[in-house]
Design brief:
The chain is built from eleven helices and six strands. The protein is α/β, with parallel strands linked by helices and about 220 residues long.
């Protein structure tokens, strides 16, 4: 079954460029385009897309406000913010508006397609550049850290002590090579630990692992 996508972008060249990325992914279809927030809201009501790829800087209302209004009318739609802005403030506002993902426009094409598929299945995804902000500020949208470290461990007792150490470094935004240097292990071993953590926490990637750790009170 195809995933129906509404592309919201005011710049014509950018719309053409984004549309061209989908040529090799027949399971993903851009069914319509919108050049401003109000048009995006109306087309979302009419077409009921699965995904809205939403720019923030639109000429009328912002993409964040459009996201909020789209989801007020239909919370079965998933909005992915696709922006060039690495902005803590806009990330916070986007998540509070109900966006399922915050993606920087220089993302790898195949990775973007995977994010779209994950979000369609109900996952949340935030660009790894902004993971440290989630850790430090809690974004105002993640639940309060109500669980103790011991309770988290009880719920995820299948994680080893070393995997807990690696998970904390993931939350700190460290790459595999950074983790290897911090723990004085090989990068291959660090990568293996990260893969085990992702599998054991039943998430799709290291960013979701970090978000889950924050939600459940590990750090």
């Amino acid at each position: 079954m195809q995933i129906k996508i509404l592309l919201v972008e005011d710049q014509k060249l950018m719309r053409i460029g984004i549309k061209s990325l989908f040529c090799d992914f027949p399971e993903l279809e851009i069914v319509a385009e919108a050049t401003n927030g109000k048009e995006a809201i109306e087309k979302s009501k009419l077409l009921k897309p699965d995904i809205v790829l939403m720019d923030i800087g639109l000429p009328d209302i912002s993409g964040i406000e459009a996201t909020k209004q789209i989801l007020e009318h239909n919370n079965n739609i998933h909005v992915i913010i696709l922006t060039s802005h690495v902005s803590e403030e806009e990330l916070t506002a986007s998540l509070q508006a109900g966006a399922s993902a915050y993606v920087i426009k220089d993302i790898n094409t195949e990775f973007l397609m995977n994010v779209i598929k994950m979000v369609k299945e109900g996952a949340m995804w935030i660009d790894p550049h902004l993971t440290p902000f989630i850790r430090d500020k809690n974004c105002g949208v993640l639940p309060s850290r109500q669980l103790s470290r011991s309770v988290f461990k009880e719920r995820h007792s299948n994680l080893t002590q070393r995997e807990y150490e690696v998970l904390k470094l993931i939350v700190d935004g460290q790459s595999n090579s950074d983790i290897a240097r911090t723990l004085t292990i090989s990068e291959h071993t660090a990568k293996a630990h990260v893969c085990n953590i992702i599998q054991k926490l039943v998430v799709d990637d290291r960013t979701q692992a970090a978000v889950k750790a924050l939600k459940e009170g590990l750090v």
